[in-house]
């Protein structure tokens, strides 16, 4: 079936502001009217009715957002992904339904854009497929071939005007949320809006993405398990990123599922080790755990490789966050509740001096979160998810959902503060790696993966936790 196309992407500030304001006003008016009706409901039905109304109004608002495409859609997706701690669950659920725009910009308009960005001479060196490989809310991807040597390339092309519309879209979206009355506008919410703005700014910064792609290509150059695309600067610009075309299969492809257990274990171990290197070695992390960012190259001789794609969501992490974060991992690794609680206090999401029961409850959550990475002889996981070799059976485990459910319950505690946004990224990174191993049904001993990393920077991280706790004590 032919892909849906559009002649242009709406980036005009006035028309987008009008659409957003209209959506917010209607949602707010409907919510206020419907809420008034709940005053006549029985007390035991009032909260249930309120949630149903909130859910319906949120769905209507999201439907309006989806019509605008561009950065508004991306902003909504980011808020859904990282906003569980400050958005009503009904609003988060509605935002999760936002999908990337699958309508592509028509080729005549795209060709004009390519000529403006690369120049007629450079573009003439390439044969560009007019049919995009994929289209999303911020841009689309085209295959290309360099005429002089047949080199296969891809052009990641940002839609014209999208980057310029981000700030106006953000301001308009804040006004929309105020009008809609669906979200409490708190300091915490405003801080997260700032983070969403920064994340989106990084995602449309193709110069930064080119630099980050080169960095990961360099640090992984001696690891044959991974492929990072090559950047071609001569065909790149502020709005175009040209990369080598890398073939591969999606991780859920039947050919991947049909691989031997040994080969799937190899791939799972590689992804988990990559996660550990990001946290313990590089202080750089891919914060988007989207499976679309991975392709698998299956080799007839069994030398399978993982293609890493899309470095627009890479974040640099400060040791002020990762230091205590690594200490939390060590505390969980050793089942050391005191060490774990100190690290959590240093990260400012366990407040005051909580009762021992609360500390043990939080510690239990962390112990469970890394059950697959611990020594199964010292700290045995449930018998149903480990084999006679001590290997964790990822295909049989529901660990990610167990952790998220338990975390949601713990978050209701009066002793729990909203964790730093960087820690949310760290947790999502870990759960993303877990889900990868679950999908390919890997069977690996996680302690042999995490073990070599556990003592890296240990003394420095301990000292950093002590320092941060001391500074917090002086302020209180």
UniProtKB/TrEMBL annotation:
Keywords of the record: ATP-binding, Kinase, Nucleotide-binding, Transferase
Residue ranges that the Swiss-Prot or TrEMBL entry lists as coiled coil: none
Presence of the UniProt keyword Kinase in the record: yes
Gene Ontology process terms (BP): ubiquinone biosynthetic process
Domain ABC1 atypical kinase-like: 99-342
GO molecular function: ATP binding; kinase activity
Pfam families named in the record: ABC1
Family: Belongs to the protein kinase superfamily. ADCK protein kinase family.
Name of the protein in its database record: AarF/ABC1/UbiB kinase family protein
Source organism (scientific name): Alloalcanivorax xenomutans
